Amino acid sequence: METFDSVLKYEEKAVFGLRALYRKFGYTQYKMSKFEEYELYVRNKDFLVSDNVITFTDTNGRLMALKPDVTLSIIKNGSDEPGVVQKVYYNENVYRVSKGSHQFKEIMQVGLECVGAIDGYCISEVLGLAAESLLSITADCVLDVSHLGIISACIDRLQPDEETRAAILKCVGEKNTHEITAICRNAGLDETLTATLVKLISTHGTAETVLPVLRALCADDAAALACVEELASVVGALGNTRAASVIHIDFSVTSDMNYYNGIVFRGFVMGIPTGILSGGQYDKLMAKMGRKSGAIGFAVYLDLLERLEEDEQKYDVDTVILYTENDDMDALRGTVRMLTDAGQTVMAQKAVPEKLRYKQLLRLCGKGVEIVEANA
User: Fold this and answer.
1) What is the pLDDT of residues 218-236, one digit of tens each?
2) Which residues are within 8 A (CB) of 279 and not within 5 positions of it... i.e. 6 or more apart?
3) Domain 1-117+282-313 has CATH 3.40.718.10
4) Dist CA 60 CA 43 (whole Å)
5) Residue 314 carries which DSSP code?
6) What does pTM read for this prediction?
7) Residues 114-122, mean pLDDT to the nearest whole number
8) What are the φ/ψ torsions at residue 166 (nearest 5 degrees)?
9) What percentage of the chain reaches a pLDDT higher than 90?
10) Are 112 and 25 in contact (CB under 8 A)?
11) If you ran DSSP here, which 8-state letter would residue 238 be given?
12) Domain 140-254 annotated CATH 3.40.50.150
């Protein structure tokens, strides 16, 4: 018999699991309106996943937007309390261009934010919950973690101009070490420091293998070395947990440094070529919006899970039964009931719908049925 769980979409099942996970650690649900003043988003459009925002004019003349993001609303509506950390999760529909269809779509999104007097414990807790979020979806996952302070310190030593710095950062995100070397050479930047940056970007793997390399690379740079030790402390705090087993250090994970700082991360699952989870520290965004405290959080992009559902669900229905106007409707109802009681999904049709995927096709014959087609 079909259960309640079996009729839920893949992303809907993920939502229930993620909400339960976050509640375990004391995160309370944050609810917001579908609408927000457009000015909030236009002032921070670089922070958004997409700068395409659906707008409309309210009855009072204000330009409003269908919310493309939740984090900005949480920051705007919160306040700083000494020593206090606001821990919230959200399960909201946002309106943005889907990474899958590249069209505007209402997307179910789940995430959490840890805002306020955050410390090393808060950062490691959020990092662990990000890893557990991926594991709740599939065991075939990885959480790539980086530290913007390390990248920034290495680039600062090169002393590039703003244009060159932006070009280097773009290449860091693409892991294009050849182009980084060419940009630095053309700009006349120090070759030894360039080689150190290239080595940093090329270094990736588990904390156990990467951290010794990072300590050696940053040994003569106090600022970078301090960030390496912070990264080691945060990742090390997870010990030998299940979450720690999926964490890799990878410096191709970058974010806009006008908003983000410190630890940043991106999560991947097998079967989806792009990241389904993204997060990090955004103290700079907090300051930009008039807040004095820090923050770290992440979001899970549930629209991308549709690809997993498509791969997992080979058939739309188990059985299609064909009938005509002249057939015995009681026999049809009885056959449908018998098959559904046996746990099958059944569709009765006069003709097979185009592109419908089914395991078997039956035709009603008198009081019984005959097999027209059966798929493995």
Assistant:
1) 999 999 999 999 999 999 9
2) 111, 126, 130, 264, 265, 266, 296, 297, 298, 299
3) no
4) 21
5) -
6) 0.79
7) 94
8) -60, -40
9) 53
10) no
11) T
12) no
